[in-house]
Task: inverse folding
């Protein structure tokens, strides 16, 4: 069984290997394995109304993707390996593009053929036999829709995270006046999907069939969830991606919305 076959068997929509000497791996100081397999796991389950970003409505993707990577490693019989999902030494989007999983869009996200940019990325590193595959081509139209629709104007020649609504909702502490106004106008209290939902390459994105991301969805976080103690909040929502910062940013976000 090849790495790609194992990852597809464990829920990836696409997977491919990159050579151990690619620049992204050298930069990360990670060139010690025979193969680095990059996998895309789709999460789009529709765009129902709610105050949580689409990516945060299912099970925490860090734990879900890593569990599937570990299952693939077991299928491959790897005694020693590493698995990463988001928190990694790699620039995962660039690595996935180098592997041929898709192209990097103007919003900085990977665009895949079947699922658009609605994918989580995972990397499995191990002494595997790398497989070479030719994947369906994806593309970015460079139409400017994402930069025009970005509510904070964060997308330009250089990405400005201080104007990115998704980033702002997840930061700790006080916000400046412009950030407060941006948050008050937003539909979400955690994350933002505008640059993805307006992208023409996402119009025909297939729905995920992964149960972690298409069932037991929490689309709308009630404000009273933030009245819980931080410990109680973390325990109640321990399997959700938005819990990693605790409830302080969310409490602040709800407060700014009420103040405007």
Result:
């Amino acid at each position: 069984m090849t790495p790609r076959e194992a990852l597809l068997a464990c829920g990836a929509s696409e997977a491919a290997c990159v050579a151990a000497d690619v620049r992204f791996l050298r930069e990360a100081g990670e060139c010690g394995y025979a193969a680095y397999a990059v996998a895309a796991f789709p999460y789009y389950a529709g765009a129902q109304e709610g105050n949580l970003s689409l990516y945060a409505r299912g099970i925490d993707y860090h734990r879900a993707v890593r569990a599937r990577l570990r299952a693939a490693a077991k299928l491959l019989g790897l005694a020693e390996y590493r698995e990463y999902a988001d928190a990694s030494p790699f620039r995962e989007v660039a690595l996935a593009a180098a592997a041929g999983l898709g192209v990097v869009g103007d919003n900085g996200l990977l665009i895949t053929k079947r699922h658009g940019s609605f994918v989580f990325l995972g990397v499995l590193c191990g002494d595997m036999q790398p497989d070479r595959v030719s994947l369906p081509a994806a593309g970015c139209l460079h139409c400017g829709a994402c930069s025009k629709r970005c509510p904070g104007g964060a997308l330009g020649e250089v990405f400005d995270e201080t104007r990115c609504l998704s980033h702002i909702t997840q930061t700790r502490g006080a916000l400046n006046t412009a950030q407060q106004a941006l948050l008050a106008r937003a539909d979400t209290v955690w994350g933002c999907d505008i640059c993805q939902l307006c992208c023409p390459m996402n119009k025909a994105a297939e729905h995920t069939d992964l149960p972690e991301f298409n069932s037991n969805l929490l689309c709308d976080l009630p404000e009273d969830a933030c009245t819980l103690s931080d410990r109680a909040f973390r325990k109640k929502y321990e399997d959700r991606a938005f819990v990693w910062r605790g409830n302080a940013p969310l409490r602040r976000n709800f407060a700014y919305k009420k103040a405007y």
Summary: Residues 3-126 form one domain. The chain has two domains: 3-126, 145-203+217-259. The first helix runs from residue 3 to 9.
